[in-house]
Amino acid sequence: MFFFFVGGVEQQVARVLKEGAGRCFACGSQADLVEVEKVLKLFFVPVWRWPGKDPAMRCENCRSIFPSSFSLPPAGATGEESSAAAASSGLSPLLKCYSCDRPVERGFRFCPFCGTAL
Fold it and tell me: Coiled coil: which residue ranges (predicted)?
């Protein structure tokens, strides 16, 4: 007998908590603070749902879902507001490479040390 399984666990947005709460770290566009849930799907049909642990950010442009700690300050924040928002969110003015853990300036798309995409 042959069994063919099509399904898996997917992360979806349950509801929007705050619109425009930050910016996407990948593309820089507006991101919303959302509540997420995990969904078990069998043959593309949702079978079981359970809530996620922490709120996350969802990008309006690239539709990615990422932890709120990765979010950049909102686009409207400038000067002192931007530095205060960065300090309150725990972000430094430099990013860190995920691969080699070296500080990289925000304008770079690739790490200048190891070449990993940021």
Answer: none
Q: How many domains does the chain have?
A: 2
Tokens linked to 84: 């205060």
Say if CB 30 and CB 9 are below 8 A apart. Answer: no
pTM to 2 decimal places: 0.55
Using the structure block, give the residue that is written with the tokens 């507001």.
Answer: 81
Domain range for residue 5? 1-76
Please tell me the distance from the alpha carbon of residue 25 to that of residue 118, in angstroms, as a whole number: 9
Q: Are residues 17 and 46 in the same domain?
A: yes
Distance CA 118, CA 68 (A): 17
Q: What is the pLDDT of residues 14-39, one digit of tens each?
A: 999 999 888 888 777 888 999 999 99
User: Distance of CA 41 to CAs 6, 19, 46, 100, Å?
Assistant: 8, 28, 4, 36
